[in-house]
Amino acid sequence: MELDFSIVLRFADALAYGLWLTIRLTLICIITGGALGFLLALARRSKNRLLRGASTVYVEFFRGTPVLIQLFWIFFCLPIILGVELSSFVSGVIALTLYTAAITSETFRSSLGTVSREQIDACVALGLPARVQVTSVVLPQALLRAMPTLLSNTISLFKESSLVSAVGMADLMFVGQNISNNTARPVEMLTAVALIYFAVAFPLTRAVSVLEGRILRKLAA
Amino acid sequence: MFDGAKDQTALVRMDGLHKSFGPVRVLQGLDIEMKRGDRVVVIGPSGGGKSTLLRVLMGLENINAGSISFGGQPYISVKDGKTVIDPKVRRSIGMVFQHYTLFPHLSVLQNLILAPCKVNGESASGAKERARALLTRFGLGAKADAYPNQLSGGQKQRVAIARALMLDPKLMLFDEVTSALDPELVAEVEQVMLELAAQDMPMVIVTHDMWFARNIASRVIFCAGGVVVEDGPPEQVLGSPIHERTREFINRVFHIRT
Known about the structure:
The complex is a heterodimer. Chain A is mostly helical. Chain A has one domain: MetI-like fold, CATH 1.10.3720.10. Chain A is built from 9 helices and no strands. Chain A has helices at about 5-10, 10-45, 50-65, 65-80, 90-115, 115-125, 130-160, 170-185, 185-220. Chain B is an alpha/beta fold. Chain B has one domain: P-loop containing nucleotide triphosphate hydrolases (Rossmann fold). In chain B, about 35% of the residues lie in helices and about 30% in strands. Chain B has 9 helices and 11 strands. Chain B has helices spanning about 50-55, 85-90, 110-120, 125-135, 155-165, 185-200, 210-215, 235-240, 245-255; strands spanning about 10-20, 25-35, 40-45, 65-70, 75-80, 80-85, 95, 170-175, 205, 220-225, 225-230. Chain B has a 6-stranded mixed β-sheet, sandwiched between helices. A 5-stranded antiparallel β-sheet of chain B has the order 2-1-4-5-6. Chain B is globular. The N and C termini of chain B lie far apart (about 40 Å).
């Protein structure tokens, strides 16, 4: 077996295109999914039983089914039901947003639970109205505490987004697989693709631990 | 400095306070009348209702029966089993807790100005000016932009006191504010409280530090079993208590300390 890694460089542009799609998909979906997830977390802690029930069903459903089937369903069933054509990018964004919302809602839910009773006592003793307690004390602390886990969620999403290759979106995985098939150079190409994913994800995982330490130290006061 | 400090009319009247946590009856008919010039130290065995008394007075706990008036105005009462608290009256009371309850995501200065700006609608610049003056007075002028995690326990408690004072309270409550501190940091916090006492700030203090109690109190209340057992000047309650239960407690506390 002779390996020729120069082939990777020949397809550098195509791989860069795939990586760019992967990154765009990840960034868009962590923002839209994170926002939706935050609302879901609020709904899950709501006093309203209907809101609590509906949000719980949503989260459990999306956490309890494979992302791949969610993607297939959005790509192939949703257009039939809605009667509209969706571009593959829009379908990908919708599917991963819905999934990310379920995941991040758990992140926000646990961080909302960590704001201590004593902090609320302090708010009451200072006469802060309920609205100010939430906007100035509870939310900022919950968001701060959620940051490291959100970053972990982002890394997971970055890797899991490779599933969109199965529905034909030209992300990094799809491009790599295609070149590998067409050039019959799977060892070089698939290794290169794995290394590219790792090169992006690894610094981020390191950043998570650093961020976590700093935030925990700050909130320990 | 504080209006009416020499006035002997009642500042707080607590009538027949009852409070249970589930089956545990913590307050069992507590009556205390506090005058404007009083600095009350509450002592007693743990579980005797001292901290609960302060928390009820701050409006942090519901009560089962009884009422509290403040400055002659109704403050807390019970209607149809529900505790009714007048939030306007509550705003004239400040409290400092055992565990530092500074907001960790805000700087010292932001901790101080949050309530004045959000509750009283004071301008940020005006509040900041007052905050800096208060911090300087407490020896914390250089810490205005620090975050709580960069402060020692003693500094945090002094900031917490300053934060409460920003709202010009008519009564200050201190719930074991030095209990969680390293011994060498206790004095700097007690110093600040003594300074407030010197300006006739009415206060209610729960503490285990009998030396400090004797120094700051104008009146000591011994609470046990959810009622007031003994109430009098510090020399009497701490020096030669009348009631057997108080005597036992005082002897035990001083025995442990020597």
